[in-house]
Amino acid sequence: MSTIPNPNAVASHALADLAERFGLELRGDGDHRVASVATLGEAGPGAVTFLANRAYRPQLAETRAGAVILREADAADCPVNVLVAGDPYLAYARIATLFDPRPVPSPGIDPAASVHEAAVIGQDVAVCAGAVVGSGAIIGDGAIIGPGCVVAPGVTLGAGSHLVANVTLCDGVRLGLRVLVHPGAVIGADGFGIARGPEGWEKVPQLGGVVVGDDCEIGANSCIDRGAIGDTVLEADVRIDNHVQIGHNCHVGAHTAMAAFTGISGSTRIGRNCLFAGRSGAYGHIEIADGVTVSAMTMVSKDITEPGSTWSGGIPARPLREWQRSLAQLSRLAKKRRGPHQTKGKNNE
Amino acid sequence: MSTIPNPNAVASHALADLAERFGLELRGDGDHRVASVATLGEAGPGAVTFLANRAYRPQLAETRAGAVILREADAADCPVNVLVAGDPYLAYARIATLFDPRPVPSPGIDPAASVHEAAVIGQDVAVCAGAVVGSGAIIGDGAIIGPGCVVAPGVTLGAGSHLVANVTLCDGVRLGLRVLVHPGAVIGADGFGIARGPEGWEKVPQLGGVVVGDDCEIGANSCIDRGAIGDTVLEADVRIDNHVQIGHNCHVGAHTAMAAFTGISGSTRIGRNCLFAGRSGAYGHIEIADGVTVSAMTMVSKDITEPGSTWSGGIPARPLREWQRSLAQLSRLAKKRRGPHQTKGKNNE
Amino acid sequence: MSTIPNPNAVASHALADLAERFGLELRGDGDHRVASVATLGEAGPGAVTFLANRAYRPQLAETRAGAVILREADAADCPVNVLVAGDPYLAYARIATLFDPRPVPSPGIDPAASVHEAAVIGQDVAVCAGAVVGSGAIIGDGAIIGPGCVVAPGVTLGAGSHLVANVTLCDGVRLGLRVLVHPGAVIGADGFGIARGPEGWEKVPQLGGVVVGDDCEIGANSCIDRGAIGDTVLEADVRIDNHVQIGHNCHVGAHTAMAAFTGISGSTRIGRNCLFAGRSGAYGHIEIADGVTVSAMTMVSKDITEPGSTWSGGIPARPLREWQRSLAQLSRLAKKRRGPHQTKGKNNE
Fold this sequence. Notes:
- The structure is a homotrimer.
- By secondary structure, the first copy, chain A, is an alpha/beta fold.
- Chain A is 12% helix and 28% strand.
- The first copy, chain A, has a domain at 3-99: MurE/MurF, N-terminal domain (Udp-n-acetylmuramoylalanyl-d-glutamate--2,6- Diaminopimelate Ligase, Chain: A, domain 1, 3-Layer(aba) Sandwich).
- In chain A, a hairpin with a 4-residue loop joins strand 24 and strand 25.
- The first copy, chain A, is flat and about 80 Å long.
- Chain A starts with a strand and ends with a helix.
- Mean pLDDT of chain A is 93; it is low at 339-349.
- At the B-C interface, strand 24, strand 25, strand 40, strand 41 and helix 4 of B face helix 3, strand 42 and helix 4 of C.
């Protein structure tokens, strides 16, 4: 596994250059050079940092950073050089790409990779040791297939995509451009389709594929199942954290993001720009409007038709005794004799 | 990774042949041929489809399918050819196997596989590139060991079993016949056994194995831990979705099915024909009767002795404000002074 | 994948030797020999067993074991040889290590492994078939890199560490001594860092690494993300079960243990000796004191400052109808007109 240093990683940048390149307003010494990023509390004079989360505001007065990316409103209280940004976190994200020292596999097919002769490999593709690429797979220019990855026959990988390591793409998977897939993720495994027969379960063939749009990111050990009939679809720029499950024939709209342990059961249709917090999800062949937020530990079980609405159902931790009392009261309520105006139907939610 | 087309996949089937082969009643043109499956809404004249879920009933009148598999009661409203079935979903599952174009690895040991000379390999076994088979492993006839799979020393794999890709079977694992294991699944990893010692945790050796019965299916990235003493056991025809966790020394009865994120902690004994919905589970060294259903997001913490009962504990998502009010009331209830007839014991559920 | 038998595994041990070696008090025949471990109910005369959990006390009178490890208080009721221990489970854990027959890969680099010439490999290291070790990786003496594992460039693996199989260690990961990592675990994948830009999400570079202390154990298919800035840290002797998620820049104190599906979101700071039960977790950039216990299915969302406290929020399963009534009452409560002393603020917990 040969690697080359990230070509973006350079020694240092003058603050004036950063301001110009990223459209920020500089207040301070434009010739000051920074060579790394660090947190507000830990940054020294050679590092650039940022202030976005209110919780860290008290640290501003003590910072020794080379420069702080912050909002106009915070600038006056900053004791060091300032880069004013409308969205400091976004500006930080862009600047940080300049200081990324992480190694990237260099183009070429490692002798310890196994690439089928009938695979189609683009320009400047890297296939690392232990990777397996099947017959008829089509690998776009500049793609990286990391060590231990399996690309099944017929898979399509868009240009600039990157499978980090030990990723599995099953047959019938098509990734768009610049898709990033983290280790252990599995795309295109069978959906969970079983039918009761006279002797036990019978498997329902899972004949569809998975289409993943441009610029999607799929977290470590996440699974996106193939469709049963027709494809499971992620539109462009869907961002998936680790340990996420997306069932067969789901459709996830562009720019939707899902945090760890999100679970979406089969045939759910999710809008654009939705946010699913950790351990949230949806089940029941439902449809969710654009821009919906689902809180942590919350499972949606009915259609959500109101765009931009927020849904919740999780219980924050309480001291044990207090929670035991809540549970006991909940049980007691359930056993209360129903009053004359309370119909059975109301209880069957 | 050479592959051969699925031998079942043929050009097309006459409806009369399908009816005869699968014991269905045909109403319509027996000479009409279908060559694929599709959803009720999308099927054209060359495809067969089905109607099982009431939710899709309204689409029936508009279907352009070559034939619809449906119940007797729905037949009169179908504008196209009909295949009447007692269980349309099951009939569909069987017919769909005829139209499965998915590639299957061809028998043989890939030069890029690593098979120990002391492994015992049956007839017509496929071992794909990047797979590793250890000493003393016994691989049944017709088994498929997909790319990147690890089969530890001494593992037994029944005839017709299929490890799709990047599967890990640890030492002490024995799979029955026709077991299907999806990518990233781990069978036989150590159970979570630790004992507090004077200096910190001490590991409790996990000395048992895992026995998986015939016709089981294990989902992507699921884990079935080895026993601490004695084996973890899945009886025949257990169906496990993705991201499922089965702890050490569990015993799961035949035909039980578990949806994604189900978690069963160690030494749980589960009956036959149980259903665990998504994100459900059980903990506490308990026993669960046959035919029990556990709803989504529900954790069983006590023995369930009544066969066929349904248990629940999940909270469906609510609009944020409404849920915040429920939580506040729940807190308030917990703080209510306990009345004279309410003993402390009752609160310690 | 050549293996050697565990050098600890011997034919049998005399009870007197076990008593002396592990500091236990023997009551019975010191010459009696045992050659395996078994459960209280299943042990025969050739096996040693233990009694720690009260639930199994009724089986004691019927045991046919060669010896039972138990507490002083239980000794009088034991019909067979006794090894008295202050902590029978801990004593069992130690004795069981003598009867571990599990195969261990033998030192050496398998010809089917891929080890970069610029990796630094210690004495008696085993690198198994299908493993990939990158440039600049440093592998400590006696470490085992199991089949299919990926060790990225620059990773450090402490002496005696063991990656079982199909493990991924990304660049920037440093494991301490004797760290045990189970199959499918991913250490050092990118944290979930995205910032909203004008055209969609923009990735926040994840530039930190992961530091894992001595004697940690990481379960199958668990993920520990790299830091965004600075490292994610596990102190020594942290014990992690399967399917656990630890977000970027978390800090987990020594001896803390987490059961399956625990999820810790980014930048959480967790004390020493904490216990997280199954499907528990924490989110919200919070801090948790030493010795805190978090119950099953419980998510902590605020700082916990009281050491040794227990927190809860999970709902034990109820019969479906009973739970439906609880939910209905909960909804009804949320709709109750707020009384004069109830401010809006109180509802916004």
